[in-house]
Design a protein that fits this description.
- The structure holds 3 protein chains of 3 kinds.
- Chain A is mainly α.
- Chain A has helices at about 10, 15-45, 65-70, 70-105, 115-125, 130-140, 145-155, 170-185, 185-195, 200-210, 215-225, 225-240, 245-250, 265-275, 280-310; strands at about 50, 55-60.
- Chain A has one domain (about 75-310): MetI-like (MetI-like fold), CATH 1.10.3720.10.
- Chain A is built from 15 helices and 2 strands.
- The longest helix of chain A has about 35 residues, at about 70-105.
- The two termini of chain A are about 20 Å apart.
- Chain B is mostly helical.
- Chain B has 2 domains: about 15-55, no CATH class; about 60-270, MetI-like fold (Orthogonal Bundle), CATH 1.10.3720.
- The two termini of chain B are about 35 Å apart.
- In chain C, the strands form 4 sheets. Chain C has a 6-stranded mixed β-sheet, with helices on both faces.
- Chain C contains 8 helices and 20 strands.
- Chain C is α+β, with helices and mostly antiparallel strands.
- Classes of the chains: A mainly alpha, B mainly alpha, C alpha+beta.
- At the A-B interface, helix 1, helix 2, helix 4, helix 5 and helix 6 of A face helix 1, helix 4, helix 5, helix 6 and helix 7 of B.
Chain lengths: ~325, ~280, ~375
Amino acid sequence: MPESVSNITAQMPRAKLAGLLLFFLGPAVAIYTLFSIYPLVATMALSTYTSDPSGARYFVGLANFETLLGDALWSKPFWNAFGNNLIFFAVHMCVQNPIGIALAGLLSLPGLRLKGFYRTVMFLPTMLSVVIVGFSWNLILSPLWGVASGALKAVGLGSLFAPWLGLESSALVTLSLISVWQFVGIPMMLIYAALLNIPEELIDAARVDGLGHFRIFFHIKLPLVLPTISLVSVLTFVANFNAFDLIYSVKGALAGPNFATDILGTFFYRTFFGNQLQLGNPTMGSAVATVMFFIILLGLCLYLFLVQRRVRRYAF
Amino acid sequence: MTAEQRAKSLSVHLVLIAYSVLAVGPILLVVMNSFKVRSAIFGSPLALPDATTFSLVGYEKVFRSSHILTYYSNSLIVTLVSMALVLLFGAMAAWALTEYRFRGSTALALFLSIGIMVPIRLGSVAILNMMRSAGLNDTLTALVLVYVAQGLPMSIFILSEFIQQIPKDLRDAARCDGVPETRIFFEVVAPLLRPAIATVAVFTIVPIWNDLWFPLILTSSDSTHTVTLGVQQFLGQYITDWNSVLAALSMAILPVVLIYVILSRQLIAGLTSGAVK
Amino acid sequence: MANLRIEHLNKRYGATTVLNDVNLDIEDGEFVVLVGPSGCGKSTLLRMIAGLDGASGGDIQIAGKLVNTLAPAERGIAMVFQSYALYPHMNVRKNMTFGLKFTGVPPAERDRRVAEAARMLRLDELLERYPRDLSGGQRQRVAIGRAIVREPAVFLFDEPLSNLDAALRVSTRVEIANLHRMLKSTIVYVTHDQVEAMTLADRIVVMNKGCIEQVGRPLDLYYAPANLFVAGFIGSPAMNFFEAKVGSVEGGCARISGPGFRSFDLPATSLKVGDSLTVGVRPEHLGRGEDGPFAVEGVVELVERLGEASFAYVRRADDRLFVAEVRGRQTPTPGERATLIAAARDVHVFDAAGLRVTTQNDA
């Protein structure tokens, strides 16, 4: 019976096996534990302390969390950031994933020419730094330059133009769409790869059964790549609730106008490092990070226990 | 091809071309205008630079008033060193986890996979404290250590999938041949992992090059800034000098685009290889 | 060169038993083929001899030395894998010498061994090539060459021909047989193909569900299968089986009767009245005739023509099918009534436990 794990360890002297494991796993586990897991745990521990102006720290239990969620001075910006983050995520789910799926579906059409060219071009923005992308769009959408308004005028929609990034009502959605523009390549590629994995014979069989491309896509391909779509969604969730670079580079730490684009990442940064309006507060910063950790954890659990269990994986 | 089929295929291409323009248009626009004089940037933003409008004034400014070359070399050092360590340690750990059966291997794999989903960024407060007390703050070493820790879980996951695809017989043959275990990894398995590098690169190396957060909190002097942070700070400082801003953006964009275009075939093959499902 | 002794070998994965008390003695220079249906444990047994899988109990001795706890490389074995397992990033020469580097063979000696193996296997021209540039047959020879240069006490082959096409399989089979004649080495060879087993083996080990069913020379297995499993496994198409009972016993002769065939007398002393039996006759031993020591009749339902012979599927009175191999140009036609007979020595009888009933016909 072929097994994925070798049985070679069964005959190995224990000391030899221990030596091998130490050699192979030691460096990775050490670096990972020291610089990834330990800081996470230490940050959570720090969130239960507070410090006085002299720098001394006192254990305060869950008081920081009470402040964060109960004191209006803290809870208002927190819930504002959380709400904005939800909108940020919702825009990604409703725009990025459908576009990604549609592009992947088009790219996987049999006999499509220039496939490689399209893939390369469409994935390009994903490779760039968020900072650069944010700033470039900032310029393009700026009324000063007039590229966007000019483009709209050219198609007769000039009256629709507004300084979207500057308006409280539209800044957040505009930033979300810039992020979507940049990262649409990831769902596109992952779903494209999943579509390629569907055996061609299955598609041929459906064509023999008289289904057209549209029906094949909706009734055969889409259900088969559902696990990938749900994986993409959870990746998007984690990335969105951890986002920072885009807002920070376009709008600065204050996430203006009037905190309209503030999300948890920028809120965390401000709390931790401080800004023009307040001093940095590492312990409250830790509390914010801990809350973000639990939000992400909650999302992951929902995915693992509700979504992933229901989504059936098919073996080909 | 019938007329109907042709019309269908044409419409598919139209959609794809439209999206392609949307995807590269903004990048082209920025790069194109960075080579123009200020009046042309505003006068005819959509035109290519020509003899009368061509200018490198923005680039001169960037070179004069920022340490862009230092930023490049910092980014290069941090990314390459992190990549080498992520690949080496990641492959070694992936090999041990897939090949050796030992008590606690499942628990260890689970422990390592926490980092795939939970962003290391959330530990920033403690990371900064640690680096400070170790005297590593404002050093490239600090960045490398954090990036290796950040990249390892995903690379272990990807490399495990690749190692499982290497025929088991190959390792057994090497064992029958009397090849020691460490040599089996370095001389038989590791050379066969070359195709995995592209996949690991997309998922762990590109984010390192592009990261803003850790340079922002861990480095404070010009001599340790990376391109992303350096350009970001430059942009903030010279926000009204459009020539410089566009030039700085282009200088951050062009090397990445160049490398991407050269390696795009491998990168995309790595992405679609089925190793990540 | 060495003998191989396996005693009370067991292998369990959790609750499932893969090998159950396997005992086997293989002599120096013997070519032994392990054969059986997939999942019978033959490959596991081979991998345990190689040291790639550990045993749950029992001993393995190679050349009189207990090797249970030795690593594969220390056991004096070399293995040829089904997938050849050539290192894809090394050329043929490097593939063959790679292992020798680690077992302390000096460079000059390595070159000598490679040259000799290359000559023997006609690989001289290929030494600098990479596996991807080789045909399936050439890869197979490199895999064998890599085993030869180790000069092992025992060669282990794991289904080495199953990735080759039919024509190549026959020629490589002949080459392996020649190689064994030249090297005179001990070989343990796993296959699921009974033709390979019959043609190559000095002795065949038939395995089923983790147990050894029978060990013997190829023709012994064919003419005197020890039990129902071996009788059904060796031979193609498979042996026909008929349910039967002992009607009466008189003077060392038992009268055997059952549905579908004419009753006959069997010179066997061990039978009692009322015993349940299974009578087996190979298709190739059934011929057309009127009456014989064993005779069965029915209506021909289907005829498969192979050229040198035809297989006739015949429906008996009790509605069961059996197969007869009919030689000659006169093939039966569907719908025809036929009587088929067999010689007494070609009739195999098995008791209720499935074990062979020895008769005076066996002598």
